[in-house]
Amino acid sequence: MENNKTFYIVYYSNKDKKHITRRGKHDDKSRYGTSKQGVPYYVYYDLDAHGYTWIQNSVKKLES
């Protein structure tokens, strides 16, 4: 993904038991990976929370 590109991301929160939509930005510190347990994750800058966060498992990204 292109740096400094903004997007919407939708994911299911196990904690809140609902789907959550956030505005995000992919930058130099953003990354995709797989945990030691084999679970995919994505770290990105959350524009709504004003900080970096990560999500795991299935994710849907929507271009802004």
Write structural notes for this entry.
This protein has 64 residues and is mainly β. The chain has one domain (5-63). 0% of the residues lie in helices and 61% in strands. It has no helices and 6 strands. The chain has strands at 5-13, 18-26, 31-34, 40-46, 51-56, 60-63. Strands 1, 2, 3, 4, 5 and 6 form a 6-stranded antiparallel β-sheet that branches. The chain is globular. The model has no long low-confidence stretch (mean pLDDT 86).
- Helix segment count? 0
Residue stretches low in confidence (pLDDT < 50, at least 5 long) are none
Which value, in Å, is the CA radius of gyration? 11 Å
Q: Estimate nothing, just give the exact number of structural domains.
A: 1
- N- to C-terminal distance: 13 Å
The multimeric state of the shown protein is single chain
Q: How confident is the prediction overall: mean pLDDT? A: 86
- Quick one: overall form? globular
The proportion of strand residues reads over 45%
Task: Please count the beta strands (DSSP E, at least 2 residues each).
Answer: 6
Class by SSE composition: mainly beta
- Percent of residues in helices comes to under 10%
How would you characterize the largest beta sheet?
6 strands, antiparallel
Order of helices and strands: EEEEEE
